[in-house]
Amino acid sequence: MIKLGLAATICLLLMSVALYAQSPFRSDEEAFRFGYEEGYRHGVADSEMGLEFNYSHSHRFQSGISYNSYVNANFRSGYVDGYKDGYDLREDDFDEEDQVRLSGTTSGFVTVFTNRKFDGTSRAFAPGEYPYLNGKLNKTIHSVEIHGPMRVILFDEPNFQGRRLILEENTFDLEDFNFGDRAESMIIERLD
User: Fold this and answer.
1) Domain membership of residue 36 as a residue range
2) Does the model's pTM come out above 0.85?
3) Which residues are CB-neighbours of 109 under 8 A, at least 6 positions away?
4) 129: Cβ–Cβ under 8 A, 6 or more apart, which residues?
5) Could you tell me if 83 and 146 lie in one domain?
6) What is the DSSP letter of 91?
7) d(C-alpha 69, C-alpha 167), whole Å
8) Residue 143, domain CATH
9) Last residue of a domain, one of 88, 119, 137
10) How many domains does the chain have?
């Protein structure tokens, strides 16, 4: 058995803590984005398997590290946001309860529709970033209704990549802008 002196033991312990605490991410934004993507995938999987909503399941990532072992707060925050979005799939039909809830906000909201002239499957969105429009809305949005002083930026690829279209008023038909059936991600901003 190897005997270590007290100084050597403390040194090994400090090195272990330093290695554990070292973030594998180059920036806070990268940590959040990686966390969001991992959380989103796990949220979708849990939803499809009929598991209860619980983002802290002992998921293991490709790296073999579990959610609970990450100490980076930006990663964990992104993971939780992504899990919620993935679990909900952001595909529920817009209903009167959503309308009442969102119409009471001072920041406004946006409703997207799968058909022209505000028809078809619809969903209301509060201001925020939506890097994935999976489910019924992915590549199916045809009209956008804006409630309040808002700007909508649609992207034809996930994660805010590719061609974009900026809207600041109701749009009856995205095909007028050659953007029907293209949106895969979206940013909604307040206009101040």
Assistant:
1) 24-88
2) no
3) 102, 103, 124, 125, 126, 127, 147, 148, 150, 188
4) 160, 186, 187
5) no
6) -
7) 41
8) 2.60.20.10
9) 88
10) 2
